[in-house]
């Protein structure tokens, strides 16, 4: 399990939910899964975030992490926007495309890739081993990506103002 391997390397692990429902709405709620993962790992350094927090609070938590390993697109965007290296387990090519400008494209494992356990494990180990270097590369790439985003939105605003 990836969590145990992170713990072995001295990292703490935080499981955080993507979807949190309001009481009695019948909608999906990921907090149960997070609690089950915490129990399965059985180590005090692996915690589940079970209380409701705002999107801004969640982004702040993500920004304080050394790295993110996830499968939710917007959590990965939040990580990248703050210079946090991330590895994605995905179902779509869009995850790889998100990570590519930051030099992290190889760390998007798509289910369609047929990446078996050994291959995913090796890639995960490589990712974790290289987190400091990946952080430096991400920090170097981030200003250009931000410039491109600003340029894109300025262009959209210009079109809308006409």
Task: Tell me what you see in this structure.
With 162 residues, the chain is mostly helical. It folds into two domains: 1-52, no CATH class; 56-162, no CATH class. It has seven helices and five strands. The chain starts with a helix and ends with a helix. The mean pLDDT is 89.
What would you say about this model in short?
By secondary structure, the protein is mostly helical. The protein has seven helices and five strands; from the N terminus they run H-E-H-E-H-E-H-E-H-E-H-H.
Q: Radius of gyration, rounded? A: 17 Å
What is the rounded distance between the termini? 54 Å
In terms of DSSP E residues, the strand content is 5-15%
Overall strand count: 5
- Outline the low-pLDDT stretches: none
Q: What is the strand arrangement across the widest sheet?
A: 3-4-5
Count of helix runs: 7
Number of domains: 2
The mean pLDDT is: 89
Note the overall shape.
Answer: globular
Give a quick set of tags describing it.
162 residues; mainly alpha; 2 domains; three-stranded parallel beta sheet; two-stranded parallel ribbon
Which helices and strands appear, and what pairs or packs with what?
Elements: H1 2-8, E1 13-15, H2 31-41, E2 46-48, H3 55-63, E3 68-70, H4 73-81, E4 86-90, H5 93-99, E5 108-110, H6 117-129, H7 131-161
Parallel strand pairs: 1-2, 3-4, 4-5
